[in-house]
Amino acid sequence: MIPGFTRRWLSRASWPRPRRTSHVVACHFCDTLHEAPELTEGSAARCNRCDHVLYQNRPASLVRASAFSASALVAMILCQVFPFLTMDAVSIRKTLTLAGTAGALFDRGEALLGIAVIAFTMVAPFLLAAGMLYVAAPLLLGFAAPGARVIVKFMYRSEPWNMAEVYLLAVIVSLLKIAKLADVHFGIGFWAAAALMVLLAAGVAGIDREELWDRLELAKQS
Q: Is this structure's pTM higher than 0.85?
């Protein structure tokens, strides 16, 4: 069999496990150690002590992670390009974009809050989506991208700092108050932000961490 074809075939197979003597995993809930068995596609391993899910073999994991991450990046571009919302009050119309929110905070002297908006609603989601795409897409072709292991570590550490959903919730709460004073119209940027929140969650959930590390190790051995 052609070596290149073999690597591509293995990368699309259902969670190929690296060649090693044992695979031990700890329960995230009760810290019980388990010998990690191989799973059929679509099944999950559970803790023998507390029944907490240890890891899952998700169907078409690499394809789902790559597709959702690429879609999240497109949604992020739409968030920046198109208006987030438009407010009409008497004869005044105000159009707001995601980047314009941070700019308005800087203009009002709230530089720290403006930096937080940029970091948590723009930078962190971008790093998460771009990192997942950078790692998962090359694995579809049977090889690991340069620095993939470092990217994965940084990506999962930055995941809790992704606050796109918190920002979206804060906007909705604010709009409930503003709606009494002005007519509010949601723009494409708002719906793109809502889609971004869902796509990011789907991209990260598309592949289990255990499987991602195993695939990276297998790609390194090939």
A: no
